[in-house]
Write a structure and sequence with these properties.
The chain is 74% helix and 0% strand. The chain starts with a helix and ends in a 16-residue tail after the last helix. One of its GO terms (biological process) is Golgi to plasma membrane transport.
Length: 708
């Protein structure tokens, strides 16, 4: 059986088990081992082993049954024990309930007894206290304060408690019978109050926080408690303002005192609020008054700067002070303090701001014109000026004498920067110092002053002078400076527009004044655009007039009908060369003076008029065969010049003109074919015929029949 037990080692595998059993049997191995395989012996061994297994199973089964029986017996015993414990627990719980009821009963009795004792003791204590106060009262009545409490300085706290109660009692006594004693009690009351305040002051100077707290607690019930707080506030400020910066000193003082008042006073927020109110109504108000009153009538610019700086620093200080406990509505409290200081100055702020900007702007303008030795001309207003403007726009005529500005545009970047800088400061002050309800209105009034000084008095005036300086279209060797005026006016207006968006828009964006500002800005732009367009149009006319003058003086009839057809050595005529040089110079001038789409617009107009001039000019001459070739060369040079415009329409016009000039040299038999070409097929037949008529051989070659 021991051997069999060894065969049941874990983990159990039936195949392995049989194999090991066969291996242990002599002659039972699969290879026979040292002995030959003996199946009978192996069978016999298996049968014996089966019997052993049966016996082992019976033995184990008996043991299992024994253990089960033992388990059932122990389970019953355990159940009996649990039942006994439950019964014991129930008995203990009942005893606990009885004990709890008994304790509650005793506690009720004790509380009742305590109430009875208190009901007896409280009247007794009151009687004792009344007797004690009567004893002290008798001393005042006799006029002899014998008690140690009134004569010992160390018992001042106890004496203060007694005299405070006696003072309250004395208030209820009739005056006619107790006038003398009431006066004595009041005298002692004030004397003790004075001593306590002196003691508090001395403790504050020594830095004894504990003693200050004790005395403040005693004084809390006295009428002089407010005086104690005043003395504390006054003493806190001694030596606190040694620097020139009253705002920084105030912030440091409040930071230091805030820690102390919480340790000394029972209501620190009240004391802190009173300290800040005292500082605002005395130190800050005196500082603001001194700074502003000394410049209010003598130097308005410095006054406005000081007002802005002082108000900004005061509001910044108030923001710092909000971190302290000043009561439930500290923001309203601080706002009222600020208003009490600045209200008289803020009421008249915007009037002074406008007056300053008006005079400052006029001074800046006058200083500039004086530096140019220029006496400003009066620009007419009203119906007569409007009539002149309309006539000038419709006829392009100069309705006044031409002014020689000697190249001066009368536009100054430095002046513009100064005006915009002053206005920017004004907008900043307006934002800070204006009441929120008045802010859009005040900002709009500042904007109107900027429009008047910058746009009307400076830009518009310069445009008027520039228009007056534009020569007539038939002037010779005219200097055209209006494009320089255009360039500078555009640059200035970009700066004006930037300030409008950056400084003004945030102040009026959510108010009805926004529409008024935008309308005013649009009106100003439109007025300037009208004058700019008029000036540019007249300038282009002058350019074309100068080209016409060059062509008239330089172009000769013999250029296109040379005497010697076989000896023409030039590539293009002198007139063409000079016109192209002049045009290239003006195109470059336009590019420097304009920006964006304006460049293409102006160059398109100039190019179209340039083409029209050349087209009309070419129709004034008759052309021989070689002259026609020279005309084609001239037009080719004009076309090359037109490429500088970088405008497709202008280049297309000169391409067409070049194609028309081919009609001057083409063989008569090829005229129809050329006229049907891509560039000429859409042109009016009369125009084609007019160009063919310019040929010298028009009649002799009977070229008219090709258009009949």
């Amino acid at each position: 059986m021991a051997t069999t037990a060894q065969l049941f080692e874990e983990p159990f595998d039936a195949d392995e088990y049989i194999e090991r059993l066969a291996w242990r049997t002599p002659g039972g191995g699969s290879k026979g081992g040292a002995e030959a395989f003996d199946p009978k012996r192996l069978l016999e061994e298996f049968e014996n082993h089966i019997e052993e297994l049966k016996q082992l199973d019976e033995k184990i089964q008996r043991r299992v049954e024994k253990l089960e029986h033992q388990c059932h017996r122990e389970a019953k015993e355990f159940a009996h024990k649990v039942q006994d414990l439950q019964r014991s627990n129930q008995v203990a719980f009942q005893h606990f309930q009885e004990l709890d009821e008994h304790i509650s009963y005793v506690a009720t009795k004790v509380c009742h007894l305590g109430d009875q004792l208190e009901g007896v003791n409280t009247p007794r204590q009151r009687a004792v206290e009344a007797q004690r106060l009567m004893t002290y009262f008798n001393e005042f009545l006799d006029g002899d304060l014998r008690s140690d409490v009134f004569n010992n300085p160390d018992k001042i706290k106890e004496a203060a408690d007694i005299i405070q109660k006696l003072h309250l009692i004395a208030q209820e006594l009739p005056f006619d019978r107790f006038a003398d004693v009431k006066a004595k009690i009041a005298s002692k009351y004030h004397d003790l109050e004075r001593q306590l305040i002196q003691e508090f002051t001395a403790a504050q100077r020594r830095g004894e926080i504990g003693r200050m707290r004790e005395v403040a607690a005693v004084l809390l019930h006295f009428k002089g408690y407010a005086h104690c707080v005043d003395v504390y506030i006054k003493q806190c400020q001694e030596g606190a303002y040694l620097r020139n910066d009253v705002f920084e000193d105030t912030a440091v003082l409040c930071q230091r005192v805030n820690k102390q008042v919480g340790e000394v006073f029972s209501s620190p927020e009240t004391v802190m609020a009173k300290l800040i109110q005292n500082i605002f109504e005395n130190k800050l108000q005196a500082h603001v008054k001194e700074k502003l009153d000394e410049t209010r009538h003598s130097d308005v610019e410095q006054y406005l700067k000081n007002l802005y700086d002082l108000y900004t620093r005061t509001t910044a200080l108030a923001t710092k002070l909000t971190e302290f406990n000043l009561g439930s509505d500290k923001h309203t409290f601080l706002s009222k303090l600020i208003k009490s200081i600045f209200s008289s100055y803020l009421e008249s702020y915007i009037d002074m701001e406008r007056e300053y900007l008006r005079s400052r702007g006029a001074m800046i303008l006058q200083r500039y014109y004086d530096s140019k030795n220029h006496q400003k001309r009066l620009i007419g207003t009203g119906s007569i000026q409007e009539l002149k403007e309309r006539i000038r726009q419709r006829t392009n005529l100069s309705l006044g004498p031409v002014i020689d500005t000697h190249g001066e545009t009368f536009l100054s970047p430095e002046l513009v920067v100064n005006l915009l800088q002053e206005t920017r400061h004004a907008f900043e002050r307006c934002h800070r110092l204006s009441d929120p309800s008045d802010l859009p209105k005040n900002a709009f009034s500042i904007f109107l002053l900027l429009v008047d000084h910058l746009c009307v008095e400076h830009i518009d005036y310069a445009l008027e002078i520039g228009l007056s300086a534009i020569p007539s279209s038939d002037a010779k060797n005219a200097n055209l400076y209006f494009l320089d005026v255009v360039q500078q006016a555009n640059s200035i207006f970009h700066l004006f527009d930037k300030q409008f968006n950056d400084q003004l828009m945030p102040l009026i964006s959510s108010s009805p004044k926004l529409a008024e500002c935008l309308h005013k800005k649009k009106e100003v732009i439109e007025q300037m655009e009208v004058k700019l367009d008029t000036g540019i149009d007249r300038t282009i006319n002058c350019m074309v007039g100068q080209m016409k003058h060059i062509l008239t003086t330089e172009q000769k009839k013999t250029d296109f009908r040379p005497e010697d057809e076989n000896n023409v050595m030039i590539q293009y005529t002198t007139a063409c060369s000079k016109v192209c040089v002049y045009v290239s110079r003006q195109v470059e001038h336009v590019r420097k003076s304009m920006d964006g789409k304006n460049v293409d617009t102006v160059l398109t107009e100039l190019g179209v008029r340039f083409h029209r001039l050349i087209h009309e000019h070419l129709q004034q001459y008759s052309y021989s065969s070689m002259g026609g070739m020279l005309a084609i060369c001239d037009v080719a040079e004009y076309r090359r010049c037109a490429k500088d415009f970088r405008v497709p329409l202008v280049l297309q016009l000169f391409d067409t003109l070049h194609a028309l000039c081919n009609l001057l040299v083409v063989a008569p038999d090829n005229l129809k074919q050329v006229c049907s070409g891509e560039q000429l097929t859409n042109l009016d037949r009369n125009l084609l015929h007019a160009f063919v008529q310019l040929r010298v051989d028009y009649r002799s070659a009977r070229l008219g029949r090709h258009f009949s």
